[in-house]
Design brief:
The chain is α/β, with parallel strands linked by helices. It has helices at residues 16-22, 38-58, 71-82, 97-106, 126-132, 155-165, 184-187, 225-228, 236-252, 257-272, 306-315, 335-339, 344-348, 361-381, 383-386; strands spanning 4-5, 65-68, 88-92, 112-116, 137-143, 168-172, 191-195, 206-210, 278-280, 296-301, 318-319, 350-354.
Length: 390
C-alpha cells in the first residue's frame, strides 16, 4: 500500500545528508567533547562548528547558542530558569503543553500566570500582552508558529513591547524553525527554543538562543558543559545532525522549497474545502487565512469524528493528526482550537495536515483521492450525524 506521511508537525524523518553527517560521530569520532586528547578534540571541533551554524541560523553570537535535548527542555529552561517566587508570567492559552504545564507547576511557588487568549483566527493581539503586564511581570513566552494550526504569531511586535517594558521574552520556535526565517536580533527576544526532529534532524536534541546577560539558571547541574548553562556530556552526533538540518533549512528558505511547499498545501486545502461541511481553522474576520507556516493546514469536518477519520486515513496509508502528537489518545478536544472559540464537537472534528518538505504533487493527488471517500463513508455511519455524540 502507498504511504503518504502528512504529520510533519509531530516529527520528520532524517534527510540523507543529515544521516551521513552524523554517522562518523557514532563510530570513528566517538570521543567526549570535554576530553583533551585527540579523540575528544575531534568531537569538540564538531560541536564548535555546529554552534557556528546555529549562530547563523539564529543570527546571534556563537556564545549565545546552548545545545540541549529539544523543545521541551528549552521551554522548561526559560520558565524554571528565570522565574522566582512573587514574579508574574505571561503566556498564551494556545501554547504547547511544555509551556502551559510548566506555568501550572510554578503556581505553588507564588508565581502567577496570565494566559492570554487568541482571537478566533488563532492570532494573539500584542495589545493583549501589553495590557497583561504588571510591575511584577518578569517573563513573556509566545510561540512563533502554532503546532496545530500553523498560525504565525506577531513576535516582533511583542518583542518591542518586552523591550519597552523591560520584561524578558521567550519564544517557542519549534514549529517555526526551518519554515520561517529566524532573526533573534530583529525579533528582540531573550530566549528561543528549537528542536531538531521537527526539521528533518534527529530526535532528542535541540538548541536555545540565550541572549548574553540573560540570568537564566540551568535546569541540570553536574558539569561545566555549555559554559555551565546545561550540564551533561554533549550528544555530539545529535548536535552535528541538528546543525546539518539547520544548514539545509536555511537553504530551503532561499531556494524556493518553502514556496513550493506552500503551493502544495494551498492545493490540498483548497480541494478538501470544496467538500460540504468543511472549514479552515485559522481565518481572519475577512474569512481569509491568516499567515501560517507553509506546511500546515487544520480543517474541520462537520458531522464527523476526527479520531475515526485519522484511523480511516491511516488504513488507506495516510498519516495525519487530530491535534498535537504530545496528546495522542487524549479524550479532551484540542485546547488550541477550544481557545480559538470552537465548540467541542467541531474541535474534535478537526484534522491537521502537515506536509514534509519532501512532499510531492503525487502525495497530494493520493490524499485528495482518498479523503472525500473517507469523509462520505464515515459521515454515513457517524454518531455525530445520528445525533448520539455530544
Amino acid at each position: 500500500m502507498r504511504r503518504v506521511y502528512m504529520d510533519a508537525n509531530a516529527t520528520t524523518p532524517l534527510l540523507p545528508e543529515v544521516m551521513e553527517a552524523m554517522r562518523p560521530y557514532w563510530m570513528e569520532h566517538f570521543g567526549n567533547a570535554s576530553s583533551i586528547h585527540l579523540d575528544g578534540q575531534h568531537a569538540r571541533t564538531a560541536v564548535d562548528r555546529a554552534r557556528e551554524t546555529l549562530a547563523r541560523f539564529f543570527n546571534c553570537h556563537d556564545a549565545e547558542v546552548v545545545f540541549n535535548s529539544g523543545g521541551t527542555e528549552g521551554d522548561n529552561t526559560a520558565i524554571f530558569g528565570l522565574l522566582h517566587p512573587g514574579d508574574h508570567f505571561i503566556t498564551t492559552s494556545i501554547e504547547h503543553s511544555a509551556v502551559i504545564q510548566a506555568a501550572q507547576k510554578m503556581a505553588p511557588q507564588r508565581i502567577e500566570t496570565t494566559f492570554v487568549a487568541p482571537q478566533p483566527s488563532g492570532l494573539i493581539d500584542p495589545m493583549d500582552i501589553l495590557r497583561a503586564i504588571r510591575p511584577q511581570t518578569r517573563l513573556i513566552s509566545v510561540m512563533l508558529a502554532n503546532n496545530e494550526t500553523g498560525v504565525i504569531q506577531p513576535v516582533e511586535a511583542i518583542g518591542k513591547i518586552a523591550a519597552v517594558t523591560g520584561v524578558f521574552f521567550h519564544i517557542d520556535g519549534v514549529q517555526g524553525a526551518g519554515k520561517i526565517p529566524i532573526d533573534v536580533r530583529k525579533i528582540g527576544c531573550h530566549l528561543l527554543s528549537i528542536s531538531a526532529h521537527k526539521m528533518h534532524g534527529p530526535k532528542g536534541v535541540g538548541a536555545m538562543f540565550v541572549r548574553r546577560g540573560t540570568p537564566v539558571e540551568s535546569l541540570l547541574v553536574g558539569g561545566s558543559h555549555e559554559r555551565r548553562r546545561r550540564a551533561g556530556t554533549e550528544n555530539v552526533a545529535g548536535i552535528v545532525g541538528l546543525a546539518k538540518a539547520a544548514e539545509l533549512a536555511m537553504h530551503s528558505l532561499e531556494d524556493g522549497t518553502i514556496d513550493r511547499l506552500a503551493g502544495l498545501r494551498h492545493r490540498l486545502e483548497s480541494e478538501i474545502l470544496r467538500l460540504p461541511g468543511t472549514g479552515l481553522n485559522g481565518v481572519g474576520a475577512d474569512d481569509k487565512p491568516v499567515e501560517r507556516a507553509a506546511n500546515t493546514s487544520n480543517i474541520w469536518f462537520d458531522n464527523l469524528d476526527g479520531e475515526a477519520m485519522v484511523i480511516a486515513l491511516d488504513l488507506k496509508g495516510i498519516a495525519v493528526s487530530g491535534g498535537s502528537a504530545c496528546h495522542s489518545g487524549a479524550t479532551e478536544p484540542s485546547h488550541v482550537l477550544m481557545a480559538m472559540g470552537l465548540d467541542k464537537t467541531r474541535a474534535r472534528a478537526s484534522l491537521r495536515f502537515s506536509l514534509l518538505k519532501t512532499a510531492t504533487e503525487a502525495d497530494v493527488d493520493y490524499v485528495l483521492a482518498v479523503v472525500p471517500e473517507a469523509v462520505e463513508r464515515l459521515r454515513a455511519v457517524s454518531p455525530v450525524e445520528a445525533g448520539t455524540l455530544g
